[in-house]
Amino acid sequence: MKNPSPGVKDIITPTEAIDYFVLSRRKFYDLLKLDKQKDFLVFYKERKMIIRTAFAKYLEANPDLRRRC
After folding, report:
1. CATH architecture of 11-65
2. Which of 26, 36, 39, 58 is the most buried (most CB within 10 A)?
3. What is the 3-state secondary structure (H, E, C) of the chain?
């Protein structure tokens, strides 16, 4: 059985978010290290997980995270 693509999952890992949204890895991990509470970030035990729809809204307001081509 194949794993579902990040586009259909509600909660994705940071690595999946980087690949799916074509983000700068360095900028994204710097964002996760900040102490601010983020609406798109949830924790499963020690792991940080991303709420895909909330993060898409965050990216609309902050497009500077996207990788430059």
Report:
1. Alpha-Beta Complex (3.90)
2. 58
3. CCCCCCCCCCEECHHHHHHHHCECHHHHHHHHHCCCCCCCEEEECCEEEEEHHHHHHHHHHCHHHECCC
List the chain domain ranges.
Answer: 11-65
> Count of CB atoms within 10 A of residue 35's CB?
4
User: What pLDDT, in 10s, does the model give residues 8-66?
Assistant: 899 999 999 999 999 999 999 999 988 677 899 999 998 999 999 999 999 999 888 88
Is the four-CA dihedral 9, 15, 17, 20 of positive or negative sign? negative
